Amino acid sequence: SRSLNLAVIPGDGIGQEVVAEGLKVLSAVLPQDVKLETKEYDFGARRYHATGETLTDADLDELKRHDAILLGAIGDPSVPSGILERGFLLKLRFAFDHHVNLRPSKLLPGVATPLAGEPQIDFVVVREGTEGPYTGNGGTIRKGTPHEVATEVSVNTAFGVERVVRDAFARAQARPRKKLTLVHKNNVLTFAGHLWTNVFNKVAEEYPEVTTDYIHVDAATIYLVTDPARFDVIVTDNLFGDIITDLAAAVSGGIGVAASGNINPGREFPSMFEPVHGSAPDIAGQGKADPSATVLSVALLLRHLGHDAEATRIEDAVSADLAERVGLPARSTSEIGDALAARVAG
Amino acid sequence: SRSLNLAVIPGDGIGQEVVAEGLKVLSAVLPQDVKLETKEYDFGARRYHATGETLTDADLDELKRHDAILLGAIGDPSVPSGILERGFLLKLRFAFDHHVNLRPSKLLPGVATPLAGEPQIDFVVVREGTEGPYTGNGGTIRKGTPHEVATEVSVNTAFGVERVVRDAFARAQARPRKKLTLVHKNNVLTFAGHLWTNVFNKVAEEYPEVTTDYIHVDAATIYLVTDPARFDVIVTDNLFGDIITDLAAAVSGGIGVAASGNINPGREFPSMFEPVHGSAPDIAGQGKADPSATVLSVALLLRHLGHDAEATRIEDAVSADLAERVGLPARSTSEIGDALAARVAG
Ligand SMILES: CC(C)[C@H](C(=O)O)[C@@H](O)C(=O)O
Ligand SMILES: CC(C)[C@H](C(=O)O)[C@@H](O)C(=O)O
């Protein structure tokens, strides 16, 4: 008998609501012989206010025992900027070596886009997750004085770049178009840029079937709005990946449907799956949040653990649900979850 | 009698063609009593190939004597990435302390945008030009080995941040909407983020009439495609400014009409004005390039030097020309230049 042992972190704001629907759809899609066990954790703003803790070593030891982690959203205006981001989200990515931050963008039929015309959008961004300017290196001297100097150090290693570039090539090779684009800013950030470009070109030799190209990050934002069809797989640095995936989500239907995986491909640590959207405190508790992004994150989770058929069933269900929404009155978070659960079970 | 003593750097590719039209319009707009003197410099790929030089100390001494610099475009595929960017463009920005990198975005009537609907776009980005990850700090160890480590250091000083933030507040105060948005990533880049945020909030106290807000750079890319009307003036870091101004140019009519100024507000050194677009080697020499972005850069140049009425006449001419283009056959670079020169003279 098989089992799926999941750590669930609803988090803040709409996190609670969307995670409930993600679990509903997960239960509905799993085959009878897979035993689903979930354990909920209370990380986020409430825990921080109550205890001052964001994520302790003991927490990490507990989380480590699960097959994967499903997260709703972390963040609340009552917590100063940076505390939960660095103290929870990034701490978890670094502690569990989530070096592949996977963010697919697909404009599904019936979904509105801010772009004119009928753009074809179907690409995936492989964002490095454990290096770059996200390492917390840097510091401040003479804080608060007219002579303050603050630095941020982007750290890039051959080890770290090569493993994510290899992951991206493998993903490109497995897709019909077999195209991989490196996004960086190697004309200005020449130290990191040379490393990324050299590693990319070296690994490319092992993938003769994959077409490659290179675009500066600033130009990439132009293509994302004028010709998103040019992209198949993109591999990029942690910060550039952060920026272009929000834009990618915006043009391919909005953050209501954007899913992401913080993946440790070797499975030494559990991977973490979460919608790209935040906790949206303005609509929290009102049943207005669209759980689709969380449900699609559950699909990424299932695919990561080898349940490909179930992942595809979820993706098809979301796709069908979005297509049939057009022109109908808005449904609540749980109504959408119910509809998706019915589809995947059906 | 007044004079305008201009250093002209046509540069590479279409740079030559568009600068010729920029100068044509400049001559046509200037009052009779302003004596225009221009001196052309051959910086760019050809000079680099011929001499190995990009920009020497002697060059800087020469350039220093002018009131301003007009640049077409620098860059050619025959030169390895980074050489001309770091060795010429950035060297000039740093040497002449161009700390205000000014990039207006205005969607003019009749101009095509990739966005659906009829977005209202009229904002200006004040990008810091001499700090951040552009300083060239950082380095590489164990280059080319599996143990390579490459770093890039973003350097931010209270001095550097405050002067550009002050410039942005003054610009916001002078505009009808009086709104200033700080774009950063202060939840992750906490050292630099705190500095930017604190300086911004401190200067804000001196501008009670200016409405302020803060957005993370990733979210800013979303707003630029879903709600660009929310922006009036944006102030941001060098790298974030690079990225969002390309996106801003794309949504507001493309880089064919995007102008920029690399400004030293105190006029200790000449400021440099250039179109946002590059040298476009694929269409160079064919008379296909749109000189409008260069002509609009000439308007920024004139305004910087106090010729406001002439700047406005150029902007109105470009605006009228773009509006009347709709549905007409394409004109050559010099035909557009002629039309604009006729309008400003008229
Ligand atoms: C919340 C923040 C730390 C995070 C990031 O910058 O990675 C978010 O923007 C994301 O994209 O997951
Ligand atoms: C060419 C490059 C050095 C430059 C930059 O990154 O600033 C360009 O992209 C720009 O925006 O002016």
From TrEMBL, chains A, B:
Xref: InterPro entries: ICDH/IPMDH, IsoCit/isopropylmalate_DH_CS, IsoPropMal-DH-like_dom, LeuB_actb
Enzyme class of the recorded protein, top EC level: oxidoreductase
Catalytic activity: (2R,3S)-3-isopropylmalate + NAD(+) = 4-methyl-2-oxopentanoate + CO2 + NADH
Cofactor(s) listed: Mn(2+); Mg(2+)
GO cellular component: cytoplasm
Record-listed E.C. numbers: 1.1.1.85
UniProt site positions, description: Important for catalysis: Y134, K185
Residue numbers binding Mg(2+): D218, D242, D246
Record text on cofactor binding: Binds 1 Mg(2+) or Mn(2+) ion per subunit.
UniProt subcellular location: Cytoplasm
Gene Ontology biological-process annotations: L-leucine biosynthetic process
Matching NCBIfam families: PRK03437.1 (NF002898)
Protein name: 3-isopropylmalate dehydrogenase
Organism whose genome encodes this protein: Streptomyces fungicidicus
